[in-house]
Backbone:
């Protein structure tokens, strides 16, 4: 849920005659209340879920909810600008064709390679299935696997990075 949606819900709640409103989807949860004290049912659910909190749930005035929305907006903006990840070292082995990548010869067998494994030139790194044909992707050089860039059964495009070898 983005901040625009939260602000829209807050404005609609503020203009409505509703006293309490709660909304939950996936990991997101919002609770708005115009009441001066929490309802007994809400207090019981708070105590049942979090016995550590011994103070009753107090309703937040609309101004406090708007201030909270501003704080949420700052957090959302910060999460949209993450710190640049540390780049793994090595040469990227790219997909030679379009298909489904398999990291192991079969579901009950171990993966061809794992991060940290030493590989030799020509050793199979993974398999790409294209048109019911299993195509092995060989290591282009001797080295150590520093990163696996795809998950098992991922669809891969031509030129997509598969594995990084140092």
Residues:
């Amino acid at each position: 849920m983005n901040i625009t949606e939260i602000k829209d819900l807050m404005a609609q709640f503020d203009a409505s005659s509703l006293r309490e409103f709660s909304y939950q989807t996936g990991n997101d949860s919002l609770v708005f209340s115009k009441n001066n004290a929490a309802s007994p049912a809400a207090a019981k659910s708070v105590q049942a879920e979090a016995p550590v909190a011994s103070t009753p749930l107090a309703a937040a005035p609309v101004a406090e909810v708007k201030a909270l929305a501003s704080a949420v907006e700052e957090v959302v903006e910060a999460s949209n600008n993450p710190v640049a990840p540390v780049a793994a070292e090595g040469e990227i082995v790219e997909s030679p064709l379009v298909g489904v990548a398999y990291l192991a010869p079969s579901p009950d067998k171990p993966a061809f390679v794992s991060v940290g494994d030493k590989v030799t030139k020509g050793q199979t790194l993974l398999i790409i299935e294209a048109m019911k044909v299993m195509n092995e992707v060989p290591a282009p050089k001797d080295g150590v696997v520093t990163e696996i860039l795809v998950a098992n059964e991922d669809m891969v495009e031509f030129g997509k990075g598969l594995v990084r070898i140092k």
